[in-house]
Amino acid sequence: MSIQLTELSEELLTCSTPKRLADPRCNEHLAGSSFEACSATLAASSVSVPVTTLATVPSVSTCMMTSLSPPPVTSAVHDISLPVSSKSGISPPLTTSDVSLPPVTSATGTSAASFVMTDTSVSPLTTATVTSENNTSSAVIKSRKRLRDECKWKRNVRKKVLKNLGKEYTSISGKVVCEKKMRTGCSENCKRKCHESFDCEKRNEIFEQFWSAGEINQQRQFIADHVQRIATKRKTTGKEASSRKFSFLYCLSVENCQASSVCKKFFLDTLGIKEDVVYGACKKKCSGGVVTSDQRGRHMKQRRVADSIKRGIRQHIESFTPVESHYCRKQTDRKYLPESLSLRKMYRLYQDSCKEQGTTPAMESTYRKIFNREFNYYFFTPKKDQCDFCTQYRNTSSKSEDLERAYQVHCAEKEMARQCKENAKMRAKSEPEIIAACFDLQQVLNCPHGDISSFCYHRKLSVYNLTVYNMGNGFGSCYLWSEVIACRGANEVASCLFRFITEHASQGGKIFELFSDNCGGQNRNRFVATLYWFLVGSIDAIESVTHSFLEVGHTQNENDSIHSAIERAARKAKIYTPEQWSAVARTARQNKPYSVQDMQLVDFINFKEVAKEIRNFDVTDAGCKVNWSKLRSIRFSKAEPNIMLVKHSHGDDYARVDLMRRKRNVTSAADVQLPQLRTTGLHLSAAKYKDLSVLCAKYLIPPAYHPFFQALPHDDTA
């Protein structure tokens, strides 16, 4: 916000103090000249002057109208406040979002912005938060630890809120300081007749406005504007060298009234202050009439870290590759670094990096501060994430009826899903023809894998592992493939399940009951349902396939034990190829070792193409819509191969969905040919292939594995 000095009229120079304070055109700081002289000299030049960063404006009462020259600009940044219409000249402070400071060039050619020194010790996270207040489109960055908010500290609340408002508060030493109250004032014999100019109502109005400001700089400015310090005219002590050199003239004013001279006692009692407060305010008053802002805690003697060093620390932290939470990756911004890392180890790696670059590393405390304030990174992957909805319910103090009802449904579905899984597990243990299994994709495995520091800075080849746990006999199966073979979508998951089910069907399995999480892109979709339709319609040994989905937030199952065993086995191992990950999975458990199968191109089937043979996935026989995102269970049986049974709650009965509804030529699953998903492998990105090549060139990957990485298909350009 800039103010055109041409708008300053003579009216502002002759009106009363409250009226000038209420006019925003007076809220400016003109360097090197008096208030009246600046308005007269610059009226023709239309110079745009920014709002000053000082807390208050020079507003001089009528009895003190003299030539004002402003104080020198201080180096500290203070709260910006603009006067608003008030009855006693005290204005509430505004936030920095209400004022913008355009750069102004002074007469010497120096930018006005250069006189305001910003605090470079503030972290970028804090800066991002401040920016978000001025620009609603900016997002607040979440950090690893809670940022300190000094405004909410108890001592600052006592000092800056209660004390400045004149309220009762308890000091740091434990002393109770009473609330400020207006006192009686001078006697009736006062020669200035103060009580005749200001009755009790006007005095109370001035008192309330003075303390309601709640800002010490504005209160001091008010005192300085209404107290004039002059040289003593006469000496009454009889001594030639008297210590008293100044006298003080006091005045008060209210809205639309001229300032009236009052005595010292009346002035102090009206504001409820002591004479030391007046002396302090006048001592801080500069020649221009502006009181210098409170400088406590604003010295510039702190040790500062150069921006280049901070930037280097951020770049080093960002060079590590974090992973997202396994279960709640859609609801949380928290990311996880490998368990082998620690903050101390990262700092040592940072020191080594600075040594290679020939730069001086920052202190470990600085590295920790930036890591904790600007990054939301943790050093472990949670094996069991908490349910978001349950956490929300526990943290909500006033629970509405809708929230209570939704929570009861959520808990009921969780218990029914677990009970259904437990019942299937017990049946599978007693009846060999029943196969009860749960499946899940493990978090991405990387090649190469090891405790070499450079592995953390480069992109690596991704390896996927779908695990299936047979709850009837406790055996686990792993299906591994790399990212150059296939992705990890619905076709890939369905192809692995096809291999698992057909293998167990050949061993006597007839009834299959499967359990998984609710991922729509991998598990709960029509392409996996197409797999079940094909199995019951084309393989005679399979009587039925049921796929139940665990409640969201409570999908922990036996597959987590497989993932944990593989991660423990690989913790201290050096792995360079997907085949070595297969070897680690085979040896991860001594008792009942896992069955590991390496998936190839020919093993992946395009079930999206097969799904075109089915006409209806969305409408039940009763005419109701199938909400795939809310399904709890689907079932296919040999008795009705073209019928899909669906549940939207584990407590409901199955609803029928005719897959061939209104289709003239009904397709039999036995007549369908399964097409291969793709005949050629996928390509790595050029950036990832470059990183792998760098690891090979530095011989961080042994030469024996160089041909494998060099032969990986990749894009030529990024």
Euclidean distance between termini CA atoms: 46 Å
- Count of beta strands: 20
Taking the sheet with the most strands, its summary is: 10 strands, mixed
Shape: elongated
Radius of gyration: 39 Å
| Mean pLDDT metric | 78
**Segments where pLDDT lies below 50 for 5+ residues?**
1-139
Q: Helical residue percent?
A: 25-40%
Count of individual helical segments: 22
SSE class: alpha+beta
Tell me the β content: 5-15%
In short:
The chain is elongated and about 125 Å long. Helices cover 32% and strands 12% of the residues. Among the domains are: 2-143, no CATH class; 307-378, no CATH class; 402-609, no CATH class; 683-718, no CATH class.
Label this structure with key terms.
718 residues, alpha+beta, ten-stranded mixed β-sheet, 32% helix, disordered N terminus
Molecular structure report:
This protein is α+β, with helices and mostly antiparallel strands and 718 residues long. Among the domains are: 2-143, no CATH class; 307-378, no CATH class; 402-609, no CATH class; 683-718, no CATH class. The chain contains 22 helices and 20 strands. Strands 11, 12, 13, 14, 15, 16, 17, 18, 19 and 20 form a ten-stranded mixed sheet that branches. A three-stranded antiparallel sheet has the order 5-6-7. A three-stranded mixed sheet has the order 8-9-10, with no helix packed on it. Helix 8 crosses helix 10 (275-283), helix 11 packs across helix 13 and helix 16 packs parallel to helix 17 (526-538). The longest helix is centred in the middle third of the chain and has 30 residues, at 401-430. The radius of gyration is 39 Å and the shape is elongated. Residues 1-139 have low confidence and may be disordered.
